[in-house]
Amino acid sequence: MPPSSPRTPAALLTEALRRDAAAPLVTYYDDSSGERVELSATTLANWVAKTANLLQEEFDVGPGSVVAVALPVHWQTAAVLLGTWSCGAAVLDTAGEDDDRFAEADVVLAAADRLPPLEEQGLPELMGLSLHPMGLGMAGYVGPARDFALEVRGHGDVFSPWQPVDPGRPGLVLATGELTLGGLVEAAAELAGRLGIVAGDRVLVDERTALEAGPVAWLLAPLVAGASLVLSRAAVASGLAHRAEVERVTATLGLTLDGVRELGRPA
């Protein structure tokens, strides 16, 4: 029997739906705003499908396309990344606001506070994300960027790519090279094993560590292992122990909490 094709990131969400569609998959906290958003596999899949349909139908994103993602660690970022990979396209990893590689992308999706310098670059396709906890649009915005939140709502809850997704196509474009779509899953599986993430883990992820390590670490490695995520932005250190208890956290990435396993550290 011939070997099966490598999995792509989109397959990881399908696997999460099969495991438990209703269980929390991504829980997001922002301590600067008091925000808490919880998404089941079903809810995240809905956002991913809408995002993928938006990218495909409005921008012709597909295999060979490059989508720049200038977003913080956020639940909407997870939807944008998985939506891009569902189209068979590559994500351009942008290190910061002064990154000069945005022009390499077919579409740029950026947080609203990062739009001003991008508007000056005359990018052909630019979308802004308010990152509002209720998914609302960019209130008061009058610039040239299209509003992700307003446009994504009108797209379908089920996604089918116009072209077959090839695991051998680029999936993540870095300053130092690239990973294929299949290579992303392979790298995530290797990292999950090295860190000690196991099925059923509830992983509390530190924003600083996530930004430094990239989406293979903070998003794909837990997914490939069958774990769920608790993302913490602007975390107040004094409240993390209570958060870990309330969210039934079993492991941390980039944080040391008494009584909780720290991934990548010897027991």
Automatic annotation (TrEMBL):
Its EC number is 6.2.1.1. The keyword Ligase applies. It is an enzyme of class 6 (ligase). Keywords: Ligase. It comes from Modestobacter italicus (strain DSM 44449 / CECT 9708 / BC 501). NCBIfam families: TIGR03089 family protein. This is Acetyl-coenzyme A synthetase. One of its GO terms (molecular function) is acetate-CoA ligase activity. InterPro entries: ANL_N_sf, Rv3268. It comes from the Bacteria.
